Amino acid sequence: MQTPPLPRSSRPRIGIPVRLSSSTDADPRVAEANALFDYIVDLVRDGGGEPVVLTAPDEPLEALDGVVLPGGGDLDPRLYGEEPGGACYDVSRAQDELDLAVARLSIDAGLPVLGVCRGHQLLNVLYGGTLIQDMDPGTVAHREPEPVDGAGPWAWHEVEVQGGTKVAGLYGGGGNGAAEVTVKIASDHHQAVARVGEGLVVTAVAGDGTIEALEDPERWVASVQWHPEARELPAEERLAPFRAFVEICRSHGMERIFS
After folding, report:
1. Residues belonging to the active site
2. Is the pTM here over 0.90, yes or no?
3. Distance CA 249, CA 113 (A)
């Protein structure tokens, strides 16, 4: 029997900062990022939340229950004290301002925050960390230069997420003393975390040492380098982490109401 949709009033409101670059950009990665943004909006809704698209850095967040920071172009390296290299793409001051403002205000307000790909890197920079501007080829493929038919624009590999962590909880591995969770991930990134931001801990690492997940142990802030929203994943695998995050936001929202 199909589960009836949740009433609108019972749906946690999840803010998602909009992508500002046009899909008509000559770089196909921009259109791909915009499509992934739409997938995240759909998955938040299908997971029981009410997606709220945020369009301005000063947009009030009081009515929100959580925030997802989605993927997109590269952060301006000047944000972490470096000059941009030639491999950077779709660097947008307006996008950086929007995403950083939403992330900062959400954390200050105590909202649960989940970063995905660019959102993972952005949180690391917000906490004072740095990025590798362009990764050298290694023993693990993190992007697929020539997509295989039916596989999408992804490199596929597995990561072991530390048990009992926030990201493990999104994949059913929450709780103290829980075993590691193996996640098959859709990967497509040429940048990665270099120096970890102060106050963040690493909770998943690829076989070549690439940092795949971070979290703040003092509050519900977590991030993943991969794309859990990739359409090539089985439907339930795509939905599960977003549904779990919506439930986390629901719980935090109830705590705020009754505190």
Report:
1. 117, 227, 229
2. yes
3. 9
